[in-house]
Structure prediction request, 162 residues.
Amino acid sequence: MAEHGMIVEKVARVYARSEQERADLRRELMFQVWSSAARFDGRAQPSTWIYRVCLNTALTWRRNLGRQERRTERDSDLETLHHPSTGPAAAAERADLLERVYDAMARLSDLDRSLLLLHLDGLSYREAAEITGLSENHFGVALTRARQRLAAQLKEIIHELD
Prediction:
């Protein structure tokens, strides 16, 4: 987890809305990775295997959460983004923009979110296809469509702000 812990963080950020949900999902993801470790057979890279476990766990968690409770108004707390070359106003603007991107991603299907997360994390089509169980070609086509849907969501959000 020391080497691949950011996978857990990224998956939790994409699939959970509030900080409390993210904390709950992070715990569940870490538990599932830990409890599944004995089944890791080394045929895939550790990061690929961890992504697969985390994405499958997040999808199940999201479905179960939806069944258990109606969505309540989500927390509006934003993480403070720190960048040494900019001041607080620029950091707040970046945080707001990042929050809008996450909001737009949250409106997409679970598959689209997964594809975009893997792409944004810099995985190759081969690695991402292995994680998702899709062929490389199908991953590429599905990713292109997911990007188009995300772009449409972002345009919608920008239009709402005008």
Q: What stands out?
A: The mean pLDDT is 80. The CA atoms of residues 51 and 115 lie 11 Å apart. Residues 136-161 form the longest helix (26 residues). Residues 1-71 form one domain.
